[in-house]
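Margin note from the TA: students keep mixing up input and output lines. Inputs are the sequences; the output is the structure of the whole complex. Example:
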Amino acid sequence: MPAPPKQSVGIGILGLGTIGTGTATVLLKNGDLLAERLGVELRLVAAADLDPHRDRGIDLSRVALGTDPAAVIHHPQVDIVVELIGGTTLARDLVRAALTAGKPVVTANKALLAHHGDELSALAMDQGVALRFEASVAGGIPIIKALTEGLVANRVEAVFGIVNGTCNYILTEMDATGAELDAVLKEAMALGYAEADPTFDIEGIDAAHKAAILARLAFDTPIDFAAIPVEGIAHLETIDTQFARQLGYVVKLLAVIKRAGERVDVRVHPTMLPEDELLAKVGGVFNAVVVRGDAVGETLYYGPGAGALPTASAVVADIAEIAESLIEGGVHRAHPCGNRTLVPRPLLPIAEVETPFYLRFAAQDRPGVLSKISGVLGNHGISIDQVRQHGRHQGGTVPLVILTHDAVEGKLRRALVEIESLGVTAGPAVVIRVEE
Amino acid sequence: MPAPPKQSVGIGILGLGTIGTGTATVLLKNGDLLAERLGVELRLVAAADLDPHRDRGIDLSRVALGTDPAAVIHHPQVDIVVELIGGTTLARDLVRAALTAGKPVVTANKALLAHHGDELSALAMDQGVALRFEASVAGGIPIIKALTEGLVANRVEAVFGIVNGTCNYILTEMDATGAELDAVLKEAMALGYAEADPTFDIEGIDAAHKAAILARLAFDTPIDFAAIPVEGIAHLETIDTQFARQLGYVVKLLAVIKRAGERVDVRVHPTMLPEDELLAKVGGVFNAVVVRGDAVGETLYYGPGAGALPTASAVVADIAEIAESLIEGGVHRAHPCGNRTLVPRPLLPIAEVETPFYLRFAAQDRPGVLSKISGVLGNHGISIDQVRQHGRHQGGTVPLVILTHDAVEGKLRRALVEIESLGVTAGPAVVIRVEE
């Protein structure tokens, strides 16, 4: 006999920061609606925070508040533990403790999942309890549900994501206004679109966390986060966003995840996208992810990638799904992909990746330079699609832009080393990969 | 004790047309992948079609093929019935028969759900078996899953959808090339983007079917399909798509679904959207749906709205979800919204809808006409945002375009009747609603 249905499911939140407060807000504000939809009350029972009693603008008088996360995890009425403290040390211990205690976990912690997702998923599977993390990628957009459930019938071919709103805001503004990165970044900080220390965003680390999570799900494979090639946007200048437009492209920081035979191609870097692609039109702090599957073709998911309430929307969706499975008495899925077996697939080394390239050289303004540079490229088997040369001097040099046809990155890098040694350019070339 | 896990789940397909063949193709081609992901084999056991043995380019040698749908429904090894014959008479009987026999049903049949969705959902709930229909709206895009599961924590405020690829193709081409509707429609037929009898598409009926399904799910309410105001695109001319561009808008056929206090505002009609909105940039045969929720804000879902394999992607996702619940021994959800109670909510009459309006008059080319027309609008409390008057003569008249501020449709219609009676315009005005 299945257990009799429970009329309420108890929620415990670890961390009442922005997302934690947002989650509590949605649980309280839309509690009646959720109870109607789910046939079960989602009851916020307990929460832990370093400063538990600060006024958060919501009524937590019926919630057991304290500073001890273990008390929340082991609270007898807490059926689902929601980890929202962030970081990869304490959070890891707490998620492990909850899973070990047989309690399902919902988390928004992308760093934790990027670094320890394989381990935590395995533990959840062993324990037969759910570990869900919709909010860890692209905030309020239900991209993990789409990828693992909505598109479950598909062999995934590729995933392309604008998954960092800070970088997308900066690139959108550079493109629209011609202002340089430092100025736009200051503005983004003033508007709350960038953190006081924006390193994780600007350097692409945050996007790489999300790439790791998406790649694991898209290809049912463990992912070694440290092996993902990551390049941020700090080196980009508006001269490049402007040349991109002239060539019919827009520069976006993309998480790129592709099937590469038996290997997987996972990387994060600034990417030139054709400007008529829908993904290229995603501006500001918004996120969007394209998923290409063998049956469905191309689909795109767009929405707010951050913010208290959008992120809480995803957290509460995970809570709701687990709550339903708890009251149904069924086995609840430990992994959002059901019983998928993870199969190790090697990462494609970046040197083997083949894309078109945008190259900008600071070239000496004298005859024969283009011929020398294009000669070296040709010797390395790299053919040229377009060339743009402008009279605009920059410290005695002029920008020379070359758009290549598909080229293997390793060959291109060797060609660039040789070009540098020619002595006809100042400094290294600016290199931006192109997706068609 | 829960039942021991089944190692395979049997699928029976009613109708081996385009979608049925696509579904069989995906089940066969990605069968191994699905078995790995789900931990259960999805086995195509039986199928019925008027012409069952026609060569469909796939190996159906291990499938019990026949012409009798009842034999499929009652086949002892068929655990899930997939209705893909279309129409609202036989299909309704067959879906009822399957549900009554205690077998879960997956369907892509939007007309059936629009007309009989309330009845069939109630029957499924009574029987405690699943009825799922992801493929009925927006083809391969998992919009129903997003709306009912991914955004379950939200009070839905509005849904705007481009849900008819034929109309979107036609409007995109009219906008891009300046060709008139009849010419583009012929081209669409030649390309297979429009059916031989395109009435259901062009008149907005197909989009209204999808609007009914989305409205039911968004607001947990029964929907009387016959009461939905529907206007197609047959009357649109490129002069209007061109004026729209001049005013910064694009014309799209939209399904519009909005919360209106305790009532729901559901309608289908050509709509002018600001051209910088992402939804306005969705071109060609593609579909896209915007969902606005109180927690998440605005999200958008884009992809192929039709086609054998994209639609099969959605059908098989539904099959997979039911199969998982069957092997988990849990109660499987009859309704994709879980246990939601449907609460009757009246439709907002179109006369009470308030939007800005685009009005194009064929006006006599003499002084005082604009003054008379704007005077009548003013008398009805309708204020004007912009006016465009062009010297371009059309049979003795010139086009006079007025963009109003928000106006209640009933008042606007009364004003238009009065304007017609002035004798300064030829024929009725072209009226297009605007969404900001």
